[in-house]
């Protein structure tokens, strides 16, 4: 039993994601954060583009690495950032859209079209794409959500729990707002 506890502690300290059965049950904060992650009353929910704990859609970057490394203020900065380096302005003969490339195999591209909610996965060939450059107009949806400090703390509490099973309460004063 003692060696199991040591292994779990090492896994948490190393930032490894624990299997669901190894995680502590969600706390009240984790549940509130999960609810905000899934359905935001203030705009586009995180789960529209991100996946955590088996919830949401894996369109945007994986949040597990960021969550395991960043402090609460760093996570707030990521949530509130205006632009991301992953979003491209994809121009085709029929128009342009903000997108995130999911895959490229040979001349075939899979690109998430962020001009619609929820994003739609488009299949394009290299001949259909006129250009792809960093999109400097697209805004990360949570940047305009105006979350309260407690809501941000709750979202971060959920992300930390989903990443490594942490049930430590994230206080609003910890997030640097």
- Write down the secondary-structure element order: HHEEHHEEEEEH
List the quaternary state of the chains: single chain
- For the record, the CATH class of the largest domain is Mainly Alpha
| CATH T-level topology of the largest domain | Cytochrome Bc1 Complex, Chain D, domain 2
For the biggest β-sheet, the strand order reads 6-5-4-3-7
Q: What Rg is obtained from the alpha carbons, in whole angstroms?
A: 18 Å
State the low-pLDDT regions, or none.
Answer: 1-21
Distance between the termini: 41 Å
**How much of the residues is beta strand, in percent?**
15-25%
The CATH fourth-level homologous superfamily of the largest domain: Cytochrome c-like domain
Number of helices: 5
Q: Could you give the count of β-strands?
A: 7
SS content category: alpha+beta
Shape: elongated
Give descriptors for this structure.
five-stranded antiparallel β-sheet; 177 residues; two-stranded antiparallel sheet; Cytochrome Bc1 Complex, Chain D, domain 2; alpha+beta; 2 domains; 5 helices
Describe this structure in words.
With 177 residues, the chain is an alpha+beta fold. The protein has 2 domains: 24-82 and 140-175, Cytochrome Bc1 Complex, Chain D, domain 2 (Orthogonal Bundle), CATH 1.10.760.10; 88-134. Helices cover 31% and strands 21% of the residues. The protein has 5 helices and 7 strands; from the N terminus they run ααββααβββββα. The strands form 2 sheets. A 5-stranded antiparallel beta sheet has the order 6-5-4-3-7, with no helix packed on it. It has a two-stranded antiparallel sheet with strand order 1-2. Strand 1 (51-52) and strand 2 form a beta hairpin. It starts with a helix and ends in a 13-residue tail after the last helix. Residues 1-21 have low confidence and may be disordered.
């Amino acid at each position: 039993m003692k060696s199991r506890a040591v292994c779990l502690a090492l896994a948490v300290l190393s930032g490894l994601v624990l299997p669901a059965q190894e995680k502590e049950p969600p706390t009240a904060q984790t549940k509130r954060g999960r609810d905000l992650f899934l359905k935001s009353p203030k705009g586009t929910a995180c789960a529209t583009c991100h996946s955590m704990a088996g919830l949401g859609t894996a369109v945007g970057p994986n949040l597990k690495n960021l969550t395991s490394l960043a402090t609460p203020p760093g996570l707030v900065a990521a949530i509130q950032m205006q632009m991301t380096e992953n979003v491209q302005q994809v121009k085709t003969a029929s128009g342009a859209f903000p997108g995130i490339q999911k895959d490229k195999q040979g001349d075939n591209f899979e690109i998430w079209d962020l001009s619609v909610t929820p994003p739609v996965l488009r299949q394009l060939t290299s001949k259909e794409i006129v250009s792809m450059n960093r999109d400097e107009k697209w805004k990360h949806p949570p940047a305009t959500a105006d979350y309260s400090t407690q809501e941000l703390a709750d979202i971060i509490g959920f992300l930390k729990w989903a990443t490594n099973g942490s049930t430590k309460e994230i206080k609003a004063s910890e997030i640097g707002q």
